[in-house]
Structures are given as structure tokens and as C-alpha cells.
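Please check the following for our workbook:

***
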Amino acid sequence: MRNRDNLIVGLDIGTTKICALAAEADRGEPLNIVGFGTAPSEGIRKGVVVNIEKTVRSIQHAVRECELMAGTQIKDVYAGIAGHHIQGINSEGMVTVQNNRTVSEDDIRRVIEAAQAINIPNDREVLHILPREFIVDNQDGVQNPIGMAGIRLEVKVHIVTCSATSGQNIVKCCNLAGLDVIDVVLEPLASAQAVLSEDEKSLGVVLVDIGGGTTDIAIYSAGSIVHTTVLPLGGNHLTNDIAICLATPLGEAENLKHQHGVAMTKLVEPDEMIHVPSVGGRKSRTLDKRLMAEVVEDRFREIFELINQEIERSRFRHVIASGVVITGGSSLLPGADELAQEILNFPVRTGFPENFTGLNELVYSPMHATGVGLLRYGLGNGHHQYATHYADNFTLFTKVSRRMREWMQDFF
């Protein structure tokens, strides 16, 4: 049996698939992925649990596969969360520096508490409080102010909130599957850990993760996240459009998308035909591939136009110097990056998870960016060293308190 002490497990709970990834790693060492398991996602719709029993079965199936490959039992996981209920808010806080006018650990706690003192509805939970920068006596751009001399300490933070019931249901499904949740992690934040470089984050970049039921957006500037949102559109909408337009079953539409799907009609050769199964036992047909390409391109255009509107709404377009990175399973369709570049008017690349060893052939794909990112998140947060497990008491207090301890640990 493999030693579990340095094992990190990420559980990507998506609309299309549930994927479990296990890696051995210590801080300062590359991830060595030793386990991989996946199962069709039943019970999830647009990133939200709609059937507890089916979701639990899917989680158990994926985790069992991962356990067999890793050669050890899995107990603790980092679980991803997405869905249109996710909301991001920017906030600021300010305190007077105590302790002989030298910024201390206690000052950091107080200023972050001041920044999070915003009105959050009772039906929502704080998922992440992400410091963007500290300001010490008007000196901005400070990443670690501890030990600096000053009178006034300010902080700018990005606060991510989720539906309280959605977060609780993710944790409950994991608990019923026999797992303890170390942390619940926003999926675009995890994906960014896997596919974005530090230079891109520093210069300003948009991460677009096109999943099955949702499209997750995260904007980075000066190395920190400044905007997050989730759109209720994804790869499943492409599949549904194909099924309706070509009058073919959903399963066949999914196969057609993977085998023949392109994001731009101009990529289809003249007179190129595809074999399309029919519904209800009717005879299959041979159709012009352009017909399917037009359907896919129309939906992709809608998704990228909504992304463009979201970038404008965020008011951070001016900080995006390094362009856009698209990831997720649907980003693999030929022409997706070119179409995104045309609509968003930024340089665009497709993001693959990087900097890991182990199961490269299985994992090196944009569709596993979130899973690898969850592992990186766990590694960066010290996983078992000082983590608080979540049971059914998924609350703002337990999560934020643990984050405060983590920040202090990182500063020292």
C-alpha cells in the first residue's frame, strides 16, 4: 500500500464527469500523479447537485478507480465547486497599525476582517477571501506587509461567495461517499493554478474554462484575481443543439461533437459528409458536415460574446495584457481558439495542465485542468498539515478562520 501521508486528492465534480486525481507531493516538489478515476456525472446540472443519490454513486465510482490505480485508500479530498450561483465581489478594508507602528500578524487579521465586513445574504456562504494587494501608508502593490513600518494598513480583497445549500450539498455528497472534504475550491481558481503562468497572471489574463454545464471566467491582474463569474452555458449546450438540429440521440450527438465537431464552419472541407444515427429506430442518414459546424459555431459565438460582455462589465479589460487562455473539454474543438480571438479581440491560447509527472497520457488535457489545479491548490495550502475538514457544518466561520491561519503560515 502507498503511504497516504503525502497524498493529495482533487475531486472535480463537473456537470459531464466526476474526476478524481491523486498525487504524491511535498512543497517545493513537482506533483507526481499516481491515481486517476472518472465516472459520468449523474445528479449534477449546471454545476449544482440536483440528485444526492446519483451524485454519491458517481463520486464513489470515480474514487474507487482512483484508489485502485494509486494503490491506497482515499479519505481526504479537495472538492471543486462551480455553478451560476457563484458571485465575486471586490472589497477594501483599513485599520490603524498597532504594535509600535510595525505591521504584525494581528494587523493582517484585523484588516482582512474589516474588508470582509460586507452585507452577505443569509442564503450565501463565503467561499474564498483572496487578498489582491496591501497598502501601507499609501504605498500600494505590497504583497507581504509584515514587518513594514507604517501607521495605516489597507487591503484590497476579492471575495467569492456561493449558495449556502450548493456548498453544503457538495460536502454532503462527499461525506455520504465516505470522504472528508478538506476544502471546497472554486473551480476556475483551481484551473488557473494548472494552466496559467506567473507572467500571465502578473501582466493580466482572462481564464475561460468551458465545462459541460457552465463556463467559468477568472480575470487576473498584477498576480492576483480581480474578477470571477460563472456563465450557465457550456459544452452540453453544444451537444443539445446538435441533437435537436440533426435529430439524433444525445449520446450520438456527443460522439459526433467529439469526432467531427469544429468551432468554425470555414474549417469544413467542401462536400464533406458525416454519418448521423436517427432516433426511434429510424434509418441513419448521411448529412453535410457544414450543417453541424454551423450549429456549433453559432453556440460558440454566443458563449464568447457573453464572455466579451462579462469582460466589459468587469471594467478590467484595460489590465489584460497577456490575453485569454481557454481550457476545459470544449476548448479542444478545432477553431475554438481562433473564434475566441476574433470575438474577444485578444491573443488566445488553449491551456493544458503543466508541471506534473506521472500519468501524463491520461491527464495532459484541458478537460483535466480543474483536477490538476485542485491538486496544486492542495499542495500550496499544505494539505494535511493544518487543514480543517468539512462535514455538514460548512460555514463561513470555519472556512474563513482556516484561511486566516493559512495566510499567517504563508507569511512566515
User: Anything to note?
Assistant: The first strand starts at residue 7 and ends at 13. The mean pLDDT is 89. Residues 132 and 184 are 20 Å apart (CA to CA).
